[in-house]
Amino acid sequence: MKQPTGGTLHGKADRTPGYRGMHSFTLSFDNYFVPAANLVGEAAGLNRGFYLQMNGFAAGRLQTGGRATGLSQAALERTAEYANDRKQFGQPIGSYQLTQYKLGRMATHLMAGRQLTYAAALAMDRDESIALEPAMAKLFASDVAVWVTQEGQLVHGGWGYAEEFPISRHVVDALVLPIFEGVKPILELKVIARGLLGS
Ligand SMILES: Cc1cc2nc3c(=O)[nH]c(=O)nc-3n(C[C@H](O)[C@H](O)[C@H](O)COP(=O)(O)OP(=O)(O)OC[C@H]3O[C@@H](n4cnc5c(N)ncnc54)[C@H](O)[C@@H]3O)c2cc1C
User: Fold this and answer.
1) How does DSSP classify residue 2?
2) HEC profile for 88-136?
C-alpha cells in the first residue's frame, strides 16, 4: 500500500505448517503516516501503547484456553471413533486395555484444562484486570492440547500421520498454542511467578 505522501506498507504472508484458518503476516511500515486521531487510547494513550496492548493479553489467553480445549475435545472424539473402527488381531483396538487407559487419561486431562479455563472465565467476569488465572488456563490447556493430540495420533498408528485423518491436522494446530499469546516459559516466569511473588 502506498500513501500519497510517500509512505509505504508492505505485507508478507508467513506460511505455517498448521493453524491455517487464520493467516499471519509480517508488516513493514516505511515512512507511513498515521493521523493523531488514530492514537490508541487517545490523548491518555501517549507513550502507553505497549501497556494498553498488554491489557488485552489476558482476554487473548483466556480464549486460547478455550481454543486449546476445543482442539483437545476434537482429538479425543476422533480418537475414540478410530479406536472403535480400527481392528487389529480380530478386535477393535479400543478393546485393548492400553487404548482404554490412554483414552481415560486424555479425557481427564481435557476435563482439567476445561475446568481451569471456565474458572479463569468466571474470575475475569468478576474482574477484567486479572492476569494470573487466564495465564494459568492458557498455559495448562495448551500443554494438554499438545499432549492429547499426540496421544490421539499414536492411537491412530500410521493413519495418524496421514492428512486424510483430522488428527494429523489437530497435532500441528496444537503446536502453536504454547507459543502465541505469550510463549510458555515467559508465562511461567514473567506472568505467573511474578504475579505470585508480587514482584
Ligand atoms: C501463528 C501465530 C499467530 C500469531 N498471532 C498473533 C496475533 O494475532 N497478534 C499478536 O500480537 N501476536 C501474534 N503472534 C505473535 C506471538 O504472540 C509471539 O510470537 C509470541 O508471544 C512469542 O514472542 P516472540 O516470537 O517475539 O518470541 P521471543 O520473545 O523472541 O522468544 C523466543 C524465545 O526466547 C525466550 N525469551 C524471550 N525473552 C526472554 C527473557 N526475558 N528471559 C528468558 N527467556 C526469554 C522465550 O521464552 C522463547 O523461548 C502470533 C504468532 C504465531 C506463531
Assistant:
1) B
2) ECCEEHHHCHHHHHHHHHHHHHHHHHHHHHHHHHHHHHHCCCCCHHHHH
Rounded to whole angstroms, the Cα distance separating 68 from 76 reads: 12
Q: Which helix (H) or strand (E) holds 87?
A: strand 87-88
Residues with a CB atom less than 6 Å from ligand 1: 16, 19, 24, 176, 179-183, 185-186
Record the cell numbers describing residue 33, joined without a space. Answer: 503516516
**Catalytic: 188?**
no
Which of 19, 183, 189 has most ligand 1 atoms within 8 Å of its beta carbon, as the pocket-test mutant? 183
The rounded Cα 60 to chain-centroid distance in angstroms is 9
**143-155: b or e for each residue (b if 16 or more CB lie within 10 Å)?**
bbbbbbbbbbbeb
Asked whether the predicted pLDDT for residue 188 surpasses 90, the reply is no
Rounded to two decimals, the pTM is 0.91
User: What letter represents residue 179's amino acid?
Assistant: I
pLDDT (tens digit per residue) in 102-135: 999 999 999 999 999 999 999 999 999 899 999 9
Question: What is the number of other CB atoms lying within 10 angstroms of the CB of residue 115?
Answer: 13
User: Which ligand 1 atom lies nearest to the CA of residue 16?
Assistant: 1
